[in-house]
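A quick aside before the break. I want you to see a complete sequence-to-structure record at least once, exactly as it would be stored in a machine-readable document. Don't worry about memorizing anything.
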Amino acid sequence: MSVPLVFDRSLLRRRRARARALGPATFLLDHVAEDAVDRLTGILRDFATAVDLGTPGDALRCVLATSPRISRLIALDHSADALVSAHGSGIVADEEALPIAPSSVDLVVSALSLQTVNDLPGTFAQIRQALRPDGLFLAALLGGETLTELRTSFAEAESETEGGISPRVAPFADVRDIGALLQRTGFALPVTDVDRLTARYATPFALMHDLRRMGAANPLNERRRTPLRRATLMRMVQIYAERFADPDGRVRATFDIVWLAGWAPHQSQQKPLKPGSATARLADALGTQEISLGEKARPR
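That is the input. The structure line, written in tokens, reads:
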């Protein structure tokens, strides 16, 4: 079965290269790198070999390279230019075709990259295969309601001025779908959560400028190829300001960062108890009266 090509990966590489030339906007990556360190600090174990998978910039690599718990760091990116400042080893590779031998690494970390992978189940399966038993996969990707304000404003503006809409903001995965995907691809003890950030901008134009500097402008294969009409753009800005502005006039932009963690299975890991194997009653633990199915509670 062929995988739908939602994202134009070659265009994405060109836009990330343009972002590096412009001077990247890194506030999201800096936030995620700091959060990743906090999450890894709470895991009391060492990782002999770690992989930074596709993370734009070097904010995450810098903190991973200085971690006393990581002996060797390998950075994977689809651009050689992005690896110039790589700490440790750098390998040019695509997230959809990982050049990692089975059971050869102890930790795979990725920040704000996997949301533009066409075959996310395939990538998860390759990461699972690359990890040694009891190895950890930790990643952050944009999901949920990310850029919902921009998506809504563009859709309404195009509908009014052009009589239809075109995809201008990439679709983002839901946290529950990500958790289910971790389980389906064989990860043990899967955990997901969402960190919502709200950035504020003077105008929607400032937001769009930041998205260009993140390399996050529209990467969809089904994007409209014709230039954006000025009337549509100005109507979008007007709708955005009317619906998503604070009292001081600045507009809001939502970024939902979906965090996920999963372990390669190992016999030492905790396992759920089998149904019916409990040795104590919940009613006893709560100090309440157990009521059989169909029986009504008696008033006290």
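Two observations worth writing down. The chain has a mean pLDDT of 88. The longest helix spans residues 27-41. We'll return to this after the break.
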